[in-house]
Write a structure and sequence with these properties.
Elements (H helix, E strand, L loop, with lengths): L2 H22 L5 H6 L6 H23 L1 H4 L3 H26 L6 H6 L2 H35 L6 H16 L4 H29 L4 H5 L2 H4 L16 H17 L2 H7 L5 H36 L5 E2 L2 E2 L4 H8 L4 H34 L7 H26 L6 H12 L1 H12 L9 H16 L3 H4 L8 H15 L4
Helix pairs in contact: 1-8, 1-9, 1-16, 3-7, 3-9, 3-14, 3-16, 5-12, 5-14, 7-8, 7-16, 7-17, 7-18, 8-16, 8-17, 9-14, 9-16, 13-16, 16-17, 18-22, 19-22, 20-22
Length: about 475
């Protein structure tokens, strides 16, 4: 597929997003931008959240994980499933009872202003980092597929990507996101379905024959109990997955802002239950695609792409979809799916970051009415520029994108976990002015634990269990500064 055709596809896709934006953003008010007037159908939110949860990381990087750890990622997905029920039964009732715009307003009511600002600041740090990793991954893929051939530098690819997001979110905000996420989820799943179908056809398999093949069996081990030191050890993935779901969904303004657009608490709970059930199935399908990609590469001698002298399994899907002659249908759906994967998480991140900064730091709800909308628009532009700068910075990072994303999140989400846990499970007040010190100490201590020499921890490899460790250190720190 030539670059001109790809650009036309991108233009057509964004034309559709702009149409959705026009239809949903007619009422350009803060109530619409922040809460969608609390009128979102729960089933639309649930379907759209699948795409936002998956993002470009799952679309590109999770299939690429097969080469290193087979289906071990599913152990974490099962943890996500369990953790989501804490969100449904504990967190959503709190948020709806308090009728918050930003979920970190809970911390203000529970502890005070410093704890509130600390929680919001760590969300912003976490989400800016997470969104930037995701955008970086997809920008890298787009650069590899099309823009490199056109002589467009990487920084320009990033600027164009984020500018397009800004254009279709600046009016409708979260109301637009709810509907565009649903559209983008559909595009992503169609791309994966077409990929699985066409690759199986090339291998002369039906989907069930593929699942029953020896090749699939050699790449599809899910449970790993044999080596507690390994990153793929079941309890590391599973327990870490529980806490990742609680923090990166339940304590994350980005994900919870969508839930808070539902009409009632019951609708929001139905949304989360439906979303996580579907997410387990969808992740298995993504990993199945990954197995297929590696089987295809082995059978037809496809080399895994190398960038800057480093093997990039993240780029195996783009390589096979675009360069192996499997048909226009796969190329077209892959491009659209890739774009959808990028923007299903990045657009909601931009909106939630705008919401959090406006509400939590600019106190927009306390401003005169005539000042609120102009302030929100300025913040929206500022956050867009910040994302551009961070994505370009991340272009110099090394290592697996999924690993980098979750490793960093383990550190930055830990204080949020500790703050909310202390607020929910104890009745103690704290010396609020010291909350930020406790949070920074927890991150520093957790990082130092992961850097312990082999003479102390042996060959043990830390993974997602860093998150509950970080949260526990924060909890203990808050206990030490509680009011007597």
């Amino acid at each position: 597929m030539n670059p001109t055709t790809i650009l036309l596809l991108i233009a057509g896709y964004f034309g559709l997003l702009l149409l959705v934006s026009f239809l949903t953003g007619k009422n350009d008010s803060n109530e619409t931008f922040f809460k969608a007037n609390k009128q979102s159908p729960w089933y639309v939110v649930a379907f759209g959240m699948i795409g936002a949860t998956l993002s470009g990381v799952t679309f590109i990087s999770v299939p690429g994980m097969i080469g290193g750890q087979q289906f071990a990622y599913m152990q974490g997905v099962f943890g996500f499933f369990v953790g989501t029920f804490f969100i449904i039964l504990v967190l959503l009732p709190i948020y709806y009872k308090l009728n918050v715009t930003s979920i970190y307003q809970y911390l203000e009511q529970r502890f005070g202003n410093v704890s509130y600002k600390t929680g919001a600041a760590f969300f912003m740090l976490s989400r800016i980092t997470g969104a930037s990793f995701r955008l970086y991954l997809v920008a890298l893929s787009m650069q590899y597929i099309v823009f490199e051939q056109l002589g467009v530098p990487f920084w320009a690819t990033v600027v164009i990507s984020i500018l397009l997001i800004w254009v279709y979110t600046f009016r409708g905000g979260i109301k637009t996101i709810v509907w565009t996420d649903a559209l983008q989820t559909l595009a992503m799943l169609v791309a994966v379905g077409v990929g699985i179908y066409l690759i199986n056809q090339k291998l002369d398999w039906t989907y069930m024959e593929f699942l029953n093949s020896d090749e699939f069996a050699s790449k599809s081990q899910i449970f790993f109990f044999d080596d507690p030191n390994s990153k793929t050890y079941f309890w590391k993935y599973f327990i870490g997955g529980i806490f990742l779901a609680i923090t990166m969904t339940g304590l994350d303004q980005d994900m919870m802002q969508k839930n808070l657009t539902c009409k009632t608490k019951k609708d929001a709970q139905k949304n989360m239950g439906t979303m996580i059930t579907l997410l387990v199935v969808v992740n298995f399908v993504f990993l199945s695609l990954g197995a297929l990609l590696f089987i295809y590469a082995e059978k037809f001698g496809v080399e895994i792409p190398v960038v800057d002298g480093k093997t990039k399994t993240d780029l195996l899907f783009p390589e096979i979809a675009m360069n192996q002659g499997l048909g226009t249908a796969l190329s077209v759906t892959f491009i659209i799916g890739l774009i959808a994967a990028a923007y299903s998480s990045a657009d909601s991140a931009l909106t939630s970051l705008t919401t959090s900064f406006s509400v939590d730091f600019m106190n927009i709800e306390k401003k005169p009415k005539e000042e609120q909308k102009p302030l929100r628009k300025k913040v929206h532009i500022g956050i867009s520029i910040l994302l551009i700068l961070v994505v370009i910075l991340f272009n110099n990072l090394e290592g697996n994108v999924v690993g980098n994303l979750f490793t960093f999140a383990n550190f930055t989400y830990g204080p949020l976990l500790g703050l909310f846990a202390f607020g929910i499970f104890t009745k103690h007040k704290i010396k609020d002015s010291y909350a930020w010190i406790v949070a920074l100490f927890a991150i520093t201590a957790t990082y130092l634990i992961t850097q312990l020499p082999e003479s102390v921890i042996g060959v043990y490899q830390f993974h997602w269990e860093i998150l509950p460790i970080n949260g526990l250190i924060t909890f203990i720190g808050l206990w030490l500064i509680k009011k007597r």
